[in-house]
Amino acid sequence: MNIDEIAVVPLDTYPTKDVKDNRLNGELTVIWRNWDKIIKTPEMVYVNSVNPGEIKGPHIHKNRTSYFLCLQGKMIIVIRDKNEKYHEIETNSTESKLISVSNGTPAAIINPSKNISKILVLADVAWKPNDNEMENTTFDDYDWNKWKKEDII
After folding, report:
1. How far apart are CA 145 and CA 153, in angstroms?
2. Nearest-angstrom CA–CA distance, 92 and 118
3. In a domain, 23, yes or no
4. pTM
């Protein structure tokens, strides 16, 4: 999915092998390389934890573009584009997808599971306390109840 404000980028994943017997022992997923040009150079990297069944946001980052990778659990990012259309991007820790949300684009993160989700966030502008870079908003016409099913919220 590529819309001006949103991008989902499949990441390169490579198998890793044991040095002694060459058996598969895991994998390596590339999130950022200075020559890829997939994302701007990150100015800030952090892990965002979202409690089970909770929603963070929606809010708008006025100056920064954020990139999200689910490290543990599940996440749904709900994004409202400039035409007021909602986009829902579901992912989990077994998928190698980097989700980009451009500055000025309102978004929320939902943890639809019964466990804490951890999300790696790369940002092209570093956050500073009291910088007023983030603005809370509401998605009053969005159906949050749709995620209240199965093992979800």
Report:
1. 9
2. 10
3. no
4. 0.86
In a domain, 99, yes or no: yes
CATH number for 94: 2.60.120.10
Q: Which pLDDT tens digits describe the chain residue by residue (153 residues)? A: 556 678 888 898 999 998 889 999 988 888 888 888 777 788 999 999 999 999 999 999 999 999 999 999 999 999 999 999 999 999 999 998 999 999 999 999 999 999 999 999 999 999 888 888 999 999 999 999 888 755 554
Q: What is the Cα–Cα distance from 42 to 84, expressed in whole angstroms?
A: 28
- The answer to whether 76 touches 113, Cβ cutoff 8 Å, is no
Q: What is the rounded distance in angstroms from the CA atom of residue 56 to the CA atom of residue 54?
A: 7
